[in-house]
Amino acid sequence: MALTSAVAAPLLPAPALVAICLMGEGGKILPTQFMEKVIKTDAEWRTQLGDEEVYRVTRGRDTERPFCGAFHDHKVPGIYFCVCCDLPLFRADAKFHSGTGWPSFFQPIAKENITVQSDRSHGMSRDEILCTRCDAHLGHVFPDGPPPTGLRYCVNSVALKFVPSPTQ
Q1: Average pLDDT of 31-45?
Q2: Which of 84, 85, 131, 154 is catalytic?
Q3: Residue 5 lies in a domain
Q4: Is 154 a catalytic residue?
Q5: What are the CA-CA distances from residue 147 to residues 7, 17, 73, 91, 96 (Å)?
Q6: Based on the structure, what is the number of domains in the chain?
């Protein structure tokens, strides 16, 4: 009797799902939904992002120089999206002048779209903020912002893509 062996295909892990909020018509935030996390190789991120500073900040958790980013003094109505995966992150009407040299917001579009984790680099203890969908480093959040939240989401301009509101 001949034995046949069945070779099982390797099991791949199920794609990671994350809870996020997208935007609908007129900038309305849609209910929370689950979406696959964006996972790419280092080479794929480098190809997509192109610009060395964008890659260094978003994938390498670096920081752009203060007062040099395109959005630190930006005052146009619209929405700021993740430069890596286009997840909506902040509304321009949540932006305020913090004097720090980086764009600052008092709240994200949806709390689900920002992941906060401890950052103990550079001899400091801070709360790092990441895009929930792709883990892009955005910046840090501090408890010294204005009402109504008292928070300051200090974000690197190169981590953001801006889409102006349509003219009325």
Answers
A1: 94
A2: 154
A3: no
A4: yes
A5: 61, 33, 20, 16, 11
A6: 1
Q: How many CA atoms lie within 13 A of 29 on its CB side?
A: 16
CATH number of the domain within which 78 lies: 2.170.150.20
Judge whether residue 124 has pLDDT over 60: yes
Q: What is the per-residue pLDDT across 125-141, written as a single tens digit (0 to 9) for each?
A: 889 999 999 999 999 99
Position 168 scores a pLDDT of: 42
φ, ψ (nearest 5 deg) of residue 162: -105, 135
Domain span at residue 154 reads 17-164
Give this prediction's pTM.
0.88
Task: Burial-class residue 88 by CB neighbours within 10 Å (0-12, 13-18, 19+).
Answer: buried
Average pLDDT over residues 43-62: 94
DSSP H stretches of helix in the chain: 42-49, 52-58
